[in-house]
Amino acid sequence: MNPKISVIVPVYKAEKYLHRCVDSILAQTFTDFEVLLIDDGSPDRSGEICDEYAKKDVRIHVYHQQNCGAGAAREFGVNKASGTWIMFVDSDDTIPGDSLENLLLKDNGEYDIISGIYHNLHNNTYFIHERDGVLTNTEYVSALLNGQTIDGPCAKIIKKTLFHSYHMVTPKEIRQNEDMLMLIIISKVAKKVLMCNDVVSYNYIYNPNSARTSLMPLVQWLTLFNYIEKHLTSFGEDLSISYSFVKYRIQRLQWCRNAGMVTPIKFREIKKLYDESLLFSSDDEIREERIILKYLIIQYIGILYRNFKKVLKQKIKKIIDRQ
User: Fold this and answer.
1) Interior angle at CA 93, CA 206 and CA 199, nearest 5
2) Which pLDDT band, with edges at 50, 70 and 90, does 281 fall under?
3) Has this prediction a pTM greater than 0.90?
4) What are phi and psi of 17, to 5 degrees?
5) What is the DSSP pairing of strand 133-136 with strand 60-65?
6) 175 and 216 in contact (C-beta within 8 Å)?
7) CA distance 294 to 287
8) What is the dihedral of CA 66, 10, 143, 281, to 10 degrees?
9) Is the pLDDT of residue 283 over 50?
10) Is the Cβ–Cβ distance between 167 and 196 less than 8 Å?
11) For residues 165 and 241, what is the distance between their CA atoms, to the nearest angstrom?
């Protein structure tokens, strides 16, 4: 008989963290699950540790493959999974002992995705969904793009049937937000999504060596934008998604700007790119995107001006002090 849940763990350079991760899964109050450990060509002892666990518990299945990236490892795991629900756990994180049980208690037979919240153990904070309750797939995608819900695969269970036509094609160099792209793709066939602020279903543990902690270069963000835009067209001409996607791109570009990756000249180039390849084409939406992008550029100029004033005041103060 197939298990109720398949817990998929992509494993890469995780020998320091893997024991606590797998142990937290095996300690669940709900026991009808399987664990798929996908060794993604890890060069350390991670693969050996996975094999040791498989010898101790028949619910654990280990697969070794060449390094293809976390997204490809998750997809491989889904193809091997036999559970009704899929849960993803990163190998440097853990899940609370009642995580699976509490998520399944929310299932009434209507939901395709059930998401709890996560506890950031590094600073003892909790991520709370801004959009709590039942969402349509369109509302869910807008919430993902707006940062109103968890944009990664953690803290949730997902019906395996959503993955029947799923195939991840982004290159492994796209190491941030590729999980959100996955959620957008599978949401095309989702009907109802449940956001639960009363279920803590994941423990995020800060790892300074994780790909999540280093910003992806600008060119890779632009590549990711193209992948996302391609799949958003499946939701039709929905203004909320179009607007959310504009805000999403602006926020990521702000990250790159703050990291010194985007110059004023590059801003103009990107603006031209957006003007020439908009998600939708009505005059109102074009005007809306241009207003937002213009605001971003003005904001950037304002920051430069405020910094100039600050430096100028400091120099004037030094001159006065010397007198």
Assistant:
1) 105
2) very low
3) no
4) -115, -15
5) unpaired
6) yes
7) 10
8) 10
9) no
10) no
11) 22
